């Protein structure tokens, strides 16, 4: 098998090892409680609504749109915890 084909096979089957940076980030974030992400998302929604009410609609939209991103980060965090990475 050629060198390129071996690399492609490893990449597709997950044979490539994670780099050090990813492992360190996952080690640190796995210590963060899952409720932290939920609290941050709810806080972003609350701040977004407050900005909307005070007339800063663009800022309110921007901050409120951070909530789904924060929730996805929480899901990733929980997945990493459950699978022991």
The major beta sheet can be summarized as: none
Low-pLDDT segments: none
Tell me the number of structural domains. Answer: 1
Beta-strand content: under 5%
Question: How many strand elements?
Answer: 0
Q: How many helices in DSSP terms?
A: 5
| Gyration radius from CA atoms, angstroms | 19 Å
Please tell me about this protein's structure.
Helices cover 79% and strands 0% of the residues. The protein is mainly alpha-helical. It has one domain. Helix 3 runs antiparallel to helix 4 (57-64) and helix 3 runs antiparallel to helix 5. The mean pLDDT is 83.
Secondary-structure map with pairings?
Elements: H1 3-13, H2 20-29, H3 34-53, H4 57-64, H5 66-83
Characteristic terms for this protein:
85 residues; 79% helix; elongated; mainly alpha; 5 helices
In brief:
The chain has 85 residues and is mostly helical. Helix content is 79%, strand content 0%.
């Amino acid at each position: 098998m050629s060198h390129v084909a071996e690399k492609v096979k490893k990449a597709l089957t997950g044979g490539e090892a994670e780099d050090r940076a990813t492992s360190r980030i996952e080690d640190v974030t796995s210590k963060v409680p899952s409720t932290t992400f939920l609290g941050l998302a709810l806080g972003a929604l609350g701040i977004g609504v407050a900005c909307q009410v005070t007339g800063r609609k663009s800022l309110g939209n921007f901050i409120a749109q951070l909530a789904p991103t924060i929730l996805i980060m929480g899901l990733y965090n929980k997945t990493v915890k459950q699978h022991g990475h």
